[in-house]
């Protein structure tokens, strides 16, 4: 740092030049050389090419006068201070007071080697490692013609804490002033510092002027927090907070919370559901080797939590209006696990929150689940393998029936090669027992109303037999691998109590189809309807034959020239529904670096129609980054079919050197309209960057209208971002909804 640079020169004096003197060893100056050196009384004079050296630091000037009694040195004539080859400071005149650890300068130029930031000022002084200057220019760009710079009447630079403070600042782009700031304080280093972060500023046609000012607090290395009050002039006010704590084991604990108050006028205008929007997020995870049993070599344990709650989906957009909510289901988890080489034990809690619902009281929650698992191990002889899995899950909810499920699974199998490893045969059995204990059954609807039992059992013994081969051959110019597998499976013994009879599954499917789920009464009937398939999937207990085929072609340098995977599951219990599941086809290619082509096609032989298609082409090469994707989904219900999704995504960006252009578009063929799109143009020139973005996206809001609880809107916005190296980035946006 500059103070330390200058003070490091305060060493025992050693003179060497065209003439050499032997001054008092208490002179406190340093190693000095000059064209002419002389000593008169308590003063040392140097003229012509004066050099002061200490380690990697040195000062060059034309004239030097040093008073050994007052310990003040005056250096004049193009004074420059270097660290190695880097120029750190230059001035016309420097006055160094070694007794007070301070100095003053005139017509000064200073540059920070760490950040690249430079300052010029008419005059400056230093006290306790802080520069104070007047009439300054600050920038991180080329000094000859800076793209951006700050003109200030006065300011200071704290070298120890890496803080730049400016008063009466005019911010320029080139020679054009764009903003006046009476007070500005920024960090010049990319490290944790308490203070104001860059604000978020936007104009939203529904919310008005949006301003959020993050306040960062970092008193200790182990924890920090951010408080972010905000105002939306046509909507209301709010505040967000984030607390982060690092434990001695370097595990990170994070807690976030947000609150926003909607004005009555906003509530009435847009029929918003909640006047008070609030929620929280709590995350904590222990790293491997930092658990309770970390001192044991063969035992590992850990803790994971991700708890989330919100009363409105708008909670997700309070801190960033650009956030697009794509997943309506929020899952909270609270887990603990303990395992060794052979055993695993876990405790799980899962809470499901549908952010589009006004009430989640009828949503199933896992509170808690307990699991013991014995990893695969040999039984009696090496090829015979087995494992054990035991679980108890309490699946509960506020409204509707709930249950406790106890399951035991015991797979036992053997696999061995044939014909010198050209074939592999496997035989196994899966034993599974499930016990269900129902509670909160006051309003439950079952297939047989006279059946009042609250306990149900299900036991299956399934067989699995497989024959597979995995072959590969190198042809020199390419390598070819092929995998084939045929697997037969199904139940050879099944026992169940009446709640899991076949007719109960059929009854549920028919009853559910007849219920109008858009009405409150229909919704009540659904969550009270006994659904056996949510516990035991009846389809998995059928005799099946699964056929798989895969082949890959590789180039000598390891690229995937082409691959094709196909699989088909056949229902052997029903001739009519032999092809009840669609055939899966996957193929693609990655012939060169940066190019990836993937396609999947699901074809239903039962309906003689395509069920699902997805295709993507990604290219990231040279300065081009582009992607095109297509997705199609059809739903089959008996003889009726409906298209559920049919859309195309396309994105393209290219860096031309001086500037970059990017954009993306999402076209919905069902609505025959463009849904989401964006276009951006940006440029980055060393110290400065700017991005201009135009975009449209679709969003949702909860309303107080029971007939339309979710309202869809179109969100259009223009966003302008500035990047000022090394100070950071900020931006403004204009957003309006339809």
Automatic annotation (TrEMBL):
One of its GO terms (cellular component) is transporter complex. Residues 1-22 form the signal peptide. Keywords: Signal. It comes from the Bacteria. GO terms for biological process: Gram-negative-bacterium-type cell outer membrane assembly; lipopolysaccharide transport. This is Uncharacterized protein. The lineage of its organism: Bacteria, Pseudomonadati, Campylobacterota, Epsilonproteobacteria, Campylobacterales.
